[in-house]
Design goal:
By secondary structure, the protein is α/β, with parallel strands linked by helices. The protein has three domains: about 130 residues, Winged helix-like DNA-binding domain superfamily/Winged helix DNA-binding domain (Arc Repressor Mutant, subunit A, Orthogonal Bundle), CATH 1.10.10; about 180 residues, P-loop containing nucleotide triphosphate hydrolases (Rossmann fold); about 60 residues, no CATH class. A hairpin with an 8-residue loop joins strand 1 and strand 2. Helix 1 packs across helix 3.
Length: about 400
C-alpha cells in the first residue's frame, strides 16, 4: 500500500484483516482463559470472513511465521480450543500494516454538509471508539465511510475482564457487598483493600462487585500474583484506554517501548480524567517488585483523580510498598471473615450431623473454602491447603473417613 491511496472495501486481503484483528483483540496470557475473539470462530465473526477462509488464512500466516497457535480454555467453552496470537514477526508486520492503512484516504460522509476527504487516522479520531478493523469493514467500494449516528446516551463503558472468574453460587456476603458498593459510590478513600485469609472468598466477592459495576462504569480486572509481569498489566490497561479512543499506551507498547520507560501515572491521569473507572487488582499479596511500581502508578492515579477507584485483594491488608496509605486513612480496609453458621450449614447438607458440623465451624471460623472442599470430597486438597492448623487437618480427615464409611 502507498501513502495517499484510498482505502476501499477490498484493499486489505483476508490475511491482512486477520493480522489486524489479532493486533486489536484483547490480550491473552497463558495463565488465564483465552478470549473467544482469538478462536477461529471469533476471528471470523470480527473480520466478516467465513470460518473456512479464516482457517486457510491462519495456515498461511503460521507458515510465514507471523502467527502462533496454541490450545487453551476459552470462557464459556467446555473443551479446549485452538487460539491464535501474533509472533514477534507478526507484531512487526501488523504494526507496518496499521501504519500504511491509517495513512490512506477515505471520504467521510456525515449525512449533513459536504463529505470530507481525510486520512483513515483522522476518520478514526472523528469516529470515536471505532477500531481500524471496524473502519476497514465499514468503508465501501469507492472508499466512502458513512459516519455513525451520534449515540443518544453516553458511550458504553470500557471493560477488560479477562481472567475474572464468573461467580458460581455466590455465598452469603450481603453486608460486605453493600459496604463495597457504598465505597464504590464515592464514600471514603479512592483506594480499597479487601483483606482476608486465603480461601475466604475475596476474589469471588470482588468479581461480583466488578460485574455489577460494569453496568455503569469502566472496569479493569487484573490478576497480580507472584507470576505477574509489567507487560501483562500494561497490555490490559492499554486495551481499556483504547476502548475510550485513547491509544497512546497501546501504540507505545506496539512500538516495542520498554515497560520501564512508560510514564503510566501521567497516561492514566490524562486519559481517564472524569471517567468513572474501577480497577480490581486481585491477589496483591505476592506482587512482584517489577510490577509493584506500575501498581503504585494505578494507586496514585486514583488518589489524584476522584473518578477512579482501585480495589486490591490481599491476605495482609497492606498495599504493596505503600503501608502508609491504610495508616493515614487514604485506603479503606475491608476485612472478610468467615461465613455465618447457617450459610456453612447449607453448604454441608445433611451428610454431617450437627455436633460434627459445630466442631468444624468452630475450628475453621466459617472458612468457606474448607466447607466447599469438604462437600466436594477433595480432602487431600483441603488438608494440604495453606493456613490450616494441624487440628483442622486432623478433623477434616476424620470427617472424610466418616463420610466414606
Amino acid at each position: 500500500m502507498k501513502t495517499g491511496e484510498r482505502l476501499q472495501r477490498g484493499t486489505l486481503t483476508v490475511n491482512e484483516r486477520v493480522l489486524l484483528h489479532l493486533q486489536e483483540a484483547p490480550p491473552y496470557r497463558q495463565t488465564v482463559e483465552a478470549p473467544a475473539s482469538r478462536t477461529q470462530r471469533g476471528i471470523a465473526e470480527a473480520t466478516g470472513i467465513r470460518v473456512n477462509h479464516v482457517s486457510r488464512a491462519l495456515k498461511d500466516l503460521r507458515r510465514d511465521g507471523l502467527v502462533s497457535e496454541s490450545s487453551a480454555r476459552v470462557r464459556g467453552e467446555v473443551r479446549r480450543r485452538k487460539v491464535y496470537t501474533l509472533s514477534p514477526e507478526g507484531v512487526a508486520t501488523a504494526a507496518t500494516l496499521r501504519e500504511e492503512a491509517t495513512a490512506r484516504l477515505v471520504t467521510l460522509d456525515g449525512g449533513t454538509g459536504a463529505p470530507q476527504e481525510m486520512t483513515v487516522a483522522e476518520a478514526m479520531r472523528r469516529e470515536r471508539g471505532s477500531t481500524l478493523l471496524e473502519i476497514v469493514l465499514r468503508v465501501d467500494d469507492l472508499g466512502v465511510l458513512t459516519a455513525q449516528e451520534a449515540p443518544e446516551a453516553e458511550a458504553p463503558a470500557a471493560l477488560v475482564l479477562e481472567g475474572m472468574p464468573v461467580p458460581d453460587g455466590f455465598l452469603d456476603r450481603t453486608e460486605e457487598l453493600e459496604a463495597l458498593e457504598t465505597w464504590l459510590a464515592g464514600e471514603g478513600p479512592s483506594v480499597g483493600v479487601l483483606r482476608g485469609k486465603e480461601g475466604m472468598g475475596k476474589t469471588s466477592l470482588a468479581a461480583v462487585l466488578a460485574q455489577q459495576a460494569s453496568r455503569s462504569r469502566s472496569v479493569l480486572w487484573h490478576d497480580v500474583g507472584a507470576w505477574d509481569t509489567p507487560d501483562a498489566l500494561l497490555e490490559g490497561l492499554a486495551s481499556l484506554l483504547a476502548q475510550h479512543g485513547k491509544e497512546g499506551l497501546k501504540r507505545a507498547l506496539l512500538g516495542d517501548a520498554r515497560a520501564r520507560d512508560v510514564d503510566l501515572l501521567r497516561i492514566l491521569h490524562r486519559d481517564l480524567a472524569g471517567r468513572d473507572t474501577l480497577f480490581v487488582l486481585d491477589d496483591c499479596t505476592a506482587c512482584p517488585p517489577e510490577v509493584a511500581r506500575f501498581v503504585d502508578a494505578v494507586v496514585d492515579a486514583a488518589l489524584r483523580e476522584p473518578s477512579l477507584r482501585v480495589l486490591m485483594t490481599t491476605d495482609t491488608g497492606e498495599v504493596p510498598r505503600r503501608r502508609d496509605l491504610a495508616a493515614s486513612g487514604r485506603a479503606a480496609v475491608f476485612d472478610l471473615g468467615g461465613l455465618p453458621r447457617e450459610s456453612c450449614r447449607a453448604l454441608m447438607g445433611e451428610e454431617v450431623d450437627e455436633a460434627e458440623f459445630e466442631k468444624l465451624y468452630d475450628l475453621t471460623g466459617g472458612h468457606p473454602l474448607s466447607f466447599m472442599l469438604l462437600r466436594s470430597a477433595e480432602m487431600e486438597d483441603l488438608v494440604r491447603g495453606k493456613g490450616f492448623t494441624p487440628e483442622e487437618a486432623a478433623l477434616v480427615k476424620y470427617l472424610a473417613l466418616r463420610g466414606r464409611s
